[in-house]
Design a protein that fits this description.
4 strands, Tscrpt_reg_AsnC/Lrp_C, globular, 2 helices, alpha+beta, Alpha-Beta Plaits
């Protein structure tokens, strides 16, 4: 499994709708509302045999109300 964090910026007034739709997908490990430039932070574990870009594009990035995302890949833990 590959651990990936996705920060999501939403259209004004759409954060709760976006969060609800992501939660219904049941793909995430953790989902947080955040302050600052981005509105949501999603922690996902993506199967090792899946292409991360395709997986995200085919799921989370299709949610209406998303303006921008920032994906952070993780590597070995220390």
């Amino acid at each position: 499994m590959k651990c990936v964090f996705v920060q999501i910026q939403c259209h004004p007034g759409k954060t709760y709708e976006v969060a609800d739709e992501i939660a219904l997908m049941e793909l995430h490990s953790e989902l947080y509302s955040t302050s600052g430039e981005f509105d949501l932070l999603v922690k996902l574990y993506i199967p090792s045999d899946k292409d991360i870009g395709f997986f995200l594009s085919d799921s989370i990035f299709k949610v209406p109300g998303i303006t921008r995302t920032l994906t952070t890949m993780t590597f070995n833990a220390f």
